[in-house]
């Protein structure tokens, strides 16, 4: 089923379409990157405000605010409402991301779980040890928690800014490592930085959370119900003396993530069709619910809360906590303070040493079976940028210190963030100076990619275009009536023309609920394949997407020289239906629900499929294959 190579040399054509197909991870990284500038601006504003008028700065954030319900009340100053109240939403988003990585991301391959877990743990233990060296035997030793946790938002944003040449997988690896980091940091807050714990409110919080777990396990829906349970657990933890932000993380971890299932999408289409035929308020509600429920709750909640936490809550946290007076006397005291030095060295030296060392140790002990998804230069960049310990570090510092000690801790955290960014930039520049092949290996590494394609390509079965022994295999799940497949077709043609070592595979995924002629067109392509003319029919169908009725298909068959009577008989007998169902089953197993969906060497391609983006992905896959050979 392979078309001769020379048939691909005449392909040409471009598409102006650059529609972005966003994925949760891509959206997460983009939001974190964009929010880094706002976070930095908020930090600078806090420093300016505190140094211009420290009294007004403290007066604003020290304003008391209470929430009362009858005789019951929760009262804190404004800074603590931000730290323990609004930051609960931040950790809720962290929990959502951790669960999504476990369900759908790099950690869905459980064999890969050990590496980021141990790298995250190593990236915390080494900084803690360094902090202990500077503060051992001193009253400040109890502040070790302020020297261990990475600020995911700030670090991802600065990584994109100062090390833009690093591959996207470096961001993904950092995200998986910092997910572990955040989980451990919240446990540390709950266990070591909660004072005077009251047993009864704590038991109430545990009971509320247990009810939530049971309801989740039984797939009980109801956003307001879970919001009420979350608020109840937060209040109970607050009254118990345990830092209530941990409930945000716990609730996020309970929220499953999954791709949109084809059956749910088809149900949403049916509900919308009913609404289109009879536009009543009741059917409008049903159609809306069908569309909403087709997307996992994890993704919906991320879209709702993540922009708020990145662009409002975390910058507000920085504005209320980062202000310290930078007088000459203070700077002299800070640069000799064991708190400042402990935090600074812990982050700038300890973080990269812990992450890089743990990653190397796991790779070594596993005999190379477990390796980082990126090269060692990228691992080094991840380690150095992880020295930005802003949000959680400041939060723990406010719990562990007060007065001058808190100011010294804040200065160490801010200085570490600056130094970590500079060191990462240096790593990026040094890597860029390496010879091309060495640089590619240093950035991309040689680890095997996660294979998303459930059914491997079979040259004896699949429809192939290009050389069978090509380094890169591009698989498309497509629908002949889908307009986006039609727009992507010239891109595929140009890639086949530009790259001599790419083979292209078409697999059927007719979206029968929205494209009434898609199934018949797919069967026509299979009927043509019975006469050795799959690709000729494939090209005609995609170039005439508005004319896919039976008479049109017969005309196309005659146009490419098929036996028209045999072609009709095959269509009448639905001889290609089983083959199409097999492709659709493989799409379901691969998590494909829409068209076109591309896989490059078994790895799902996320993002746009204009000529620039798809060509870059093919080039990257070719480089990775060359490094492994």
From TrEMBL:
Topology in membrane: Multi-pass membrane protein
Gene3D superfamilies associated with the record: Glutaredoxin, Na+/H+ antiporter like domain
Gene Ontology process terms (BP): regulation of pH
Ranges annotated as spanning the membrane: 34-52, 78-96, 117-134, 146-166, 173-192, 198-215, 222-238, 308-327, 339-362, 374-401, 413-432
Catalytic activity: Na(+)(in) + 2 H(+)(out) = Na(+)(out) + 2 H(+)(in)
Pfam families registered for this protein in UniProt: Na_H_antiport_1, Thioredoxin_4
Protein name as annotated: Na(+)/H(+) antiporter NhaA
Locations listed in the record: Cell inner membrane; Cell membrane
InterPro entries: Na/H_antiporter_dom_sf, NhaA, Thioredoxin-like_fold, Thioredoxin-like_sf, Thioredoxin_domain
UniProt GO molecular function: sodium:proton antiporter activity
Organism of this sequence: Planotetraspora kaengkrachanensis
Membrane in keyword set: yes
Lineage: Bacteria, Bacillati, Actinomycetota, Actinomycetes, Streptosporangiales
UniProt KW keywords: Antiport, Cell membrane, Ion transport, Membrane, Sodium, Sodium transport, Transmembrane, Transmembrane helix, Transport
